[in-house]
Design brief:
Helix content: 25-40%
Shape: elongated
Number of helices: 3
Structural class: alpha+beta
Order of helices and strands: HHEHEE
Mean pLDDT: 74
Number of strands: 3
Strand content: 5-15%
Protein name: TM2 domain-containing protein CG11103
Radius of gyration: 29 Å
Largest sheet: 3 strands, antiparallel
């Protein structure tokens, strides 16, 4: 009777290749949705976020060029000082020409240029400014460290 029809019907579904593909696709889709749901629940948990800067609501920003004392590391804005060199206009290293006093007064710059190995090359800070069409958070002009005093 009905049990035999259900068994025949279930065998038909299991051996129909199109139905199997649809079922596998549905299972895969359900796993993806489940993973996304689990991730969003994890992100919404009220755990402490470790950051080097304070976190507050992004509504405190009044415009794209506004500089505020609050930063949301989970937000869309990147710290200006974290941008790669491709988005910056950086000055050349200052040549103090072996004048230790001038370097001490300025706080950065090169006493000498060049060297054959990494250890021989002096590194310094240079003044960099973010290009005007790039949006970022924080001071748009800053000192970038680790620049080699190359020739």
């Amino acid at each position: 009777g009905i049990k035999e029809i259900m068994i025949m019907h279930s065998k038909h579904i299991l051996f129909n290749p199109l139905t199997v593909l649809i079922a596998l696709d549905l299972i895969s889709h359900m796993r993806v949705v489940s993973a996304i749901h689990a991730r969003s629940e994890k992100e919404m948990q009220t755990t402490a976020v470790q950051s080097v800067v304070p976190i507050t609501s992004p509504s405190s920003l009044t415009g794209s060029a506004a500089v505020s004392s609050d930063f949301n590391p989970l937000g869309p804005m990147v710290m200006c000082s974290f941008l790669p060199r491709d988005f910056l206009e950086c000055k050349d290293p200052i040549d103090h020409d072996n004048n230790n006093t001038a370097k001490a007064v300025k706080g950065y710059g090169c006493l000498r240029f060049g060297g054959s190995t990494y250890e021989e090359v002096e590194h310094t800070e240079v003044l960099c400014t973010v290009f005007s069409d790039i949006d970022c958070y924080g001071p748009r002009t800053f000192l970038r460290d680790g620049v080699p005093c190359g020739s």
